[in-house]
Amino acid sequence: MKKTIFALSLLGSVFVFSQEKGNKPQEKQIEGVVITKTKKAVEQKADRTIFDFSEQPQLNNGNVLEGIKKLPGLVSTDIAGMMYQGKMLEVYLNGRPLNITSNELNSFLEGMPANSVERIEVITQPGAEFPATSGGAIMNIITNKNANKYLTATYSGNYSFTNYDKYRSRTTNSVNLNARNKYFGWQLNVGQNYRESMLNGQQDELLKSHTDRYGRGYFAKSGLTFDLGQDRLLLNYDIYHNNNDNYTLSDGHGDLPFQNNPKDLREAFYTSSDVAHTNSLRQEAVVTYQKRFADKSQKLDFQLGYTRSNSKFSQDNFFQNGTFAAAPNPPINSAMSGLKDILNNESVMNIANFKVDYAQPIKLLDGGKVSFGGLYERQDYDTESFGLTNLEYQRQTASTYLEFQAKLKKFDFTLGSRAENYDISGVTRYFDKDAKLVEANLIPFNKFKLFPNASVQYNMMNQVYIAANYNKKISLPSISALNPNNVTFSGPSTEVNGNPNLQPTIFDNYEIKVSAFDYAFIGYSVSSASNQVAQIIRKDGRKLYNEQVNISNMKIHNFNVGLPVPFMIFSKPLSEIMKFDFNPDKINFMYLYAGYQKHQIDNLDNKGFWIFNIMTQILLPKDIKMTANYSYLTPKAGYFYFTAEKPFNNSLDITLTKKFMNNRLTLSVFANDIFNGQMMQVRSNPPSGTPVMISSKYDTRNFGFSINYKIPTRNKLAKEDPNILNQTKKEDNGGVMQQAQ
After folding, report:
1. Alpha-carbon separation of residue 42 from 15, 507, 569, 615, 731 (angstroms)
2. 630: closest CA among 585, 673, 668?
3. Is 624's pLDDT higher than 70?
């Protein structure tokens, strides 16, 4: 029986989800010896899950947000952000936090082509070296590419369309250039995207809307690396620009000013046509100096970074007409009709930081390592509405950490702690009911806190282990949640507000997991949160309020299991399968994932929900590969202060891929959400006020094709350089982990 269980674990793990990077391995030539490397599509580590985007057409044929929503175990919604296996995600880009959430995060990820992403790491157990502000977990989006000697180039393009009420197109294009000479290496990755999309929404009986969305995005990532003996100097500059327009036709029921008197609001039914403009620019500059020693496991890194992000949002009205409900039903004569700048809001964020990381081996038990370092960060965030600066927010964080790793026979131990000191302050300004300007100080947060972490792993056999983890973390309110200004479509019946007085969330995270051969796993985790930030939607009369609040106490329980199943188990004897003499990129398999999640909130009876994901690879004639991905999330369950009336996820995606020209050209055709089942419909459960039904439907069913062409190098065996586009990884991690800031 034990042999059977072991064999099944082997079947479900080793062969299945370990795809090579294309059919042809990358090669290095060292003194006449050729070393080949393989790249795994999904890899389970003790503290993270790694998803390779670069060679998976089913993930990289659209924008990044579309690819992320296909990851097993991840839940992404417009109302509560992103969660992975029950943990709230802090989103990083190339090792640095984006500091945005919700609608602004979705817009940013929609504006980034998925084929510009190398891989995504979901770090479920951030250690002491990561800032305590990582909260429950970190999703690190890595856009780096490898640099080669001699000039090389890769072109990636994508076209897709939807056809609901009318035909809409989406295109992305990007070029990645790499080169190195005897003095330095350089990389440049530039791209653009254009996307037309639709959104149908409903807010109870107060508002029905139809929105035509037009998005335009551009990005450029540049890097220089200088080798100074054993040491290395890295210089990076990135820029991301998005310019979006949303045209909305809405039918509403609410209270409007009678005869343009704002103090005389009367019930009315109306039709309105509006356009919202969003223009954002994000710039990042990083300088990294990596000091290296004779002992390769001894490292000293210095990094200085600066980020500036500007965002502008405005809304214009084309017309608003209708009638008041009370007799004699006079028509609406709205002063807002045809008015420019109904909303005119701006924000600017500046972040500067400096960090130091050091690591070296030490004699501890059967071998160990010590790591320590520090970080200083300053963030300034100002918002403006119609020329009034209504929020001035400042945060200074100083932190240091110490972490030990040790081995004892079959056990691996990690013990560490991070000390962080926060100094948060600011001023908010607003007009009261009497139109008087009020200025008030934000609730200050000036505290010194310790954040311990510990883990133990028992290695039952080679690549089979059981691990237990604990860490304490903090999550600071995102700037988009603090922003008092509305940066989404606004109607007379809707009021959207941030909350500048939100308090940080403290997490205690516990997890136990059994993993076999990096792929098959089963685990249970619980996150206990104090002051969890959550969205509240409630109705008061004929007004809808969308607010951000702190939940005093909350727990999220999560059980999850993943199992790859190769189809050869049904056709080949076990003795042949155990030989490992086949290419894992050349087999048919299915990857099964299931997760159960329950949100436990005081005075709220939330039911748990199941998440299911099935990913299948089928090899067709002519070396055509078909990949099918189906995801489903059970309805009638509680998600923070909402109950899902329909499943968040209910979609089937199919991708067909073939390689040409000695694998240099990859062509894929795809169909996403074939049955058009992807939508969101929830009913809110606010602590006070009247519950509200909210629904939204994007044109998620789309069809298209993607192209990736790799121009060959002058020398096919040219030496490959490390990544230099915002590269901050610790090299002793095998290129897997990038340090966070």
Report:
1. 12, 27, 21, 12, 20
2. 673
3. yes
Instruction: Answer whether 79's CB lies under 8 Å from 680's CB.
Output: yes
What distance in Å separates the CA atoms of residue 73 and residue 254, rounded to the nearest whole number? 40
Which tokens sit at 282? 């994000």
Q: Tell me which residue has tokens 């220089």.
A: 224
Structure tokens at 486: 């509305």
Residue carrying the six token digits 């400096």: 354
Residue 36, pLDDT score: 40
**SS3 (DSSP) at 719:** coil
Backbone angles phi, psi at 414, to 5 degrees: -135, 130
8 A C-beta contact, residue 740 and residue 168: no
Q: How confident is the model at residue 145 (pLDDT cuts 50, 70, 90)?
A: low
What is residue 735's predicted lDDT score, i.e. its pLDDT? 27
Please choose, from the candidates 539, 518, 573, 511, the residue with its C-alpha nearest in 3D space to the C-alpha of residue 124: 511
For the chain, the average pLDDT equals 82
Residue labelled with tokens 């947000």: 65
Comparison of pLDDT for 497 and 224, the residue scoring more: 224
Going by C-beta distance under 8 Å and a sequence separation of 6 or more, which residues neighbour residue 229?
A: none
| SS3 at position 479 | helix
Residue 208 corresponds to which tokens in the numbers above? 């029905």
Contact 317, 333 (CB under 8 A): no
What is the identity of the amino acid at 78? D
What is the tens place of the pLDDT at every residue in 191-225? 999 999 999 999 888 989 999 999 999 999 998 99
Beta strand 343-362 with 368-385: parallel, antiparallel or unpaired?
A: antiparallel
- Residue with the larger pLDDT of the pair 610 and 477: 610
Q: How far apart are CA 586 and CA 568, in angstroms?
A: 11
Within 8 A by CB and 6+ apart from 639, the residues are 75, 77, 79, 80, 599, 606, 609, 648, 682
Do residues 407 and 365 touch, judged by C-beta distance below 8 A? Answer: yes
The set of residues, in sequence order, having a beta carbon less than 8 Å from that of 176 and lying 6+ positions away, is 145, 153, 154, 156, 187, 188, 189
Determine the longest span between alpha carbons in the chain, in angstroms: 93
Measured between alpha carbons, how far is 537 from 545 in angstroms, rounded to an integer? 6
Q: Is the pLDDT of residue 567 over 90?
A: no
CA distance 92 to 173: 23
- CA distances, 483 to each of 221, 378, 478, 708 (Å): 28, 18, 9, 40
Integer Cα distance of 621 and 656 in angstroms? 12
DSSP-assigned letter for residue 579: T
